[in-house]
């Protein structure tokens, strides 16, 4: 997949306002410590690196550490890590190992922010993060065909799991099979467009033409990506992930 540099810049500018600033404010304005727990082969790893660009302290966890939930929680306690970025499934394991426990006398430090991505978030993980004082979760959704992150939503925004709303300079359409918008509350396929949209698949023009189609709601010549994901828009504008259209 060929993505433009401007997509990464757009994501950074979005995260400054929507993620970085609120997390910094919750920590009293100080520089934060972030655990880099994602393989550099995965585009999600850029999310932690953008904190470094912003002047924060990023702890790069090696393969052995990031695969060991108990050891990773102990590392976060020992180094007072403020931000962790993991899949929801791994977040559940970390929570079971005490990630959200807080007891300074016993050396237990609770992160201020748990970033989630890569798969659907369970009700259990969402509710635990929402109810834990001093910590919140933020779910980031994005296919490879859009530069890393496309949608985002916080546990402070919703009582139930959500993929949130489009990041800056990004459009999300919920459409039927005839590419017509469906009413809020009705399921439809998610199509995305905007600054972070990929140019297509390298040397695969046929597949590119199939998945990147003309955007009837944008400017002439603009395209949108057909995600294959089934979503539903709430009355408040937040989007809920329902599954795949081919399930």
From TrEMBL:
It comes from the Bacteria. One of its GO terms (biological process) is secondary metabolite biosynthetic process. InterPro entries: AMP-dep_synth/lig_dom, ANL_N_sf. Residues 27-202 form the AMP-dependent synthetase/ligase domain. GO terms for cellular component: cytosol. One of its GO terms (molecular function) is phosphopantetheine binding. Keywords: Phosphopantetheine, Phosphoprotein. This is Non-ribosomal peptide synthetase. It comes from Streptomyces coeruleoprunus. The lineage of its organism: Bacteria, Bacillati, Actinomycetota, Actinomycetes, Kitasatosporales.
């Amino acid at each position: 997949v060929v993505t433009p540099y401007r997509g990464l810049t757009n994501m950074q500018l979005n995260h400054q306002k929507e993620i970085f600033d609120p997390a910094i404010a919750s920590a009293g304005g100080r520089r934060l410590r972030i655990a880099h727990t994602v393989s550099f082969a995965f585009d999600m790893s850029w999310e932690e690196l953008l904190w470094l660009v912003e002047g924060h302290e990023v702890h790069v966890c090696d393969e052995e550490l990031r695969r060991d939930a108990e050891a990773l929680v102990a590392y976060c306690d020992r180094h007072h890590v403020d931000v962790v970025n993991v899949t929801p499934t791994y977040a559940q394991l970390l929570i079971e190992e005490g990630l959200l426990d807080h007891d300074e006398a016993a050396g237990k430090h609770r992160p201020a922010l748990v970033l989630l991505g890569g798969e659907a978030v369970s009700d259990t993980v969402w509710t635990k993060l929402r109810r834990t004082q001093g910590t919140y979760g933020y779910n980031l959704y994005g296919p490879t065909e859009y530069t890393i992150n496309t949608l985002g939503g916080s546990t402070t925004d919703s009582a139930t799991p959500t993929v949130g709303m489009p990041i800056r300079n990004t459009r999300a359409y919920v459409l039927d099979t005839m590419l017509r918008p469906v009413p809020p509350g009705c399921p439809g396929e998610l199509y995305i467009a905007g600054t972070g949209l990929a140019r297509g698949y390298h040397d695969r023009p046929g597949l590119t033409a199939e998945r990147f189609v003309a955007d009837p709601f944008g400017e002439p010549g603009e395209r949108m990506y057909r995600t294959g994901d089934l979503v539903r828009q709430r009355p408040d504008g937040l989007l809920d992930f329902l599954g795949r259209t081919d399930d």
